[in-house]
Design a protein that fits this description.
Layout (H helix, E strand, L loop, with lengths): L1 H12 L2 H17 L3 H9 L2 H7 L2 H17 L3 H18 L2 H17 L3 H17 L3 H17 L3 H15 L10 H26 L2 H26 L4 H17 L6
Length: 261
């Protein structure tokens, strides 16, 4: 295919910049297809040309991309370590864009480890950078993650504000890269939380809290079970659905048992 031809040409012509470009392009494609191991293998091939180039910009890009297979495969500590490495390098070079990337990508893994304060601090720092360094994809991703993080600490007003910023960044654009998924996830997670809060208030007023909450939990548990089976069978392609339903379950759990009004 085209990736193999590009790789072969880069090696033959000793075009190391072109070789790194072709490999990172393929890695983005592989991550987008849920092929975590293949993406990691492709990125490992960047080591030799990077050693020749000695270009910190290219090294930071590759290390940032390496964090994505780690994250999606559940290797959160490894992902954070990669993004912290890039963060230190980017700060030394005063590369604000890479600094923002590193902050929100590290926060993404901290969020999965339930280190919410750390995640929110990094996401807010990234958001401040993005005020000065416009990047629609990064804004959608960062604010979507911030919406999720604030949701999980029951700051629904802050979560709603962040989700609105993510929605504004997405606008009418079609998704351009897998990272924008987090923008959509944050928006959906907040919508689910707001729906259940409204439902909790209404149910409490009707005195049916315990029964209704149990029904919702049962439905979400069924969705989770089905989607986990799909992920195991399909190698992660349906991970988007799983994320949404995990978000739903977290928000139902966060509300706690509904009580009679």
């Amino acid at each position: 295919g085209y990736f193999e031809r590009a790789r072969a040409t880069g090696i033959e012509q000793r075009d190391y910049n072109g070789l790194v470009f072709s490999l990172t392009s393929e890695a983005v494609y592989r991550v987008g297809r849920g092929q975590w191991d293949r993406a990691a293998q492709v990125l490992a091939e960047c080591d030799a040309p990077l050693d020749v180039l000695k270009d910190p910009q290219a090294r930071e890009l590759v290390e940032t991309l390496r964090g994505h297979p780690d994250y999606f495969a559940g290797r959160y500590d490894e992902a954070i370590a990669r993004h912290r490495f890039v963060l230190d390098s980017a700060r030394q070079r005063e590369n604000r864009q890479h600094e923002a990337w590193s902050l929100y990508c590290a926060a993404r893994s901290a969020l999965e480890l339930e280190r919410f304060a750390e995640a929110i601090e990094d996401l807010e720092a990234a958001a401040r950078i993005l005020e000065d360094v416009p990047d629609a994809m990064s804004e959608a991703t960062c604010y979507g993650l911030l919406a999720s993080a604030r949701c999980r600490v029951r700051d629904l007003d802050g979560a709603t504000e962040a989700a609105a910023r993510a929605e504004e960044a997405i606008g009418a654009r079609a998704p351009t890269v897998f990272l924008m998924l987090h923008g959509y996830e944050g928006i959906v997670e907040v919508a689910i939380a707001r729906h259940h809060v409204r439902g909790a208030v209404g149910v409490a007023r009707q005195g049916r809290g315990g029964v209704d909450a149990g029904v919702r939990l049962e439905v979400v548990d069924e969705l989770l079970a089905v989607d986990r089976q799909r992920v195991r069978a399909g190698g992660g392609v349906e991970r988007r659905d799983l994320h949404v339903h995990i978000a739903a379950r977290r928000q139902v759990d966060a509300l706690g048992p509904l009580r009679r009004g």
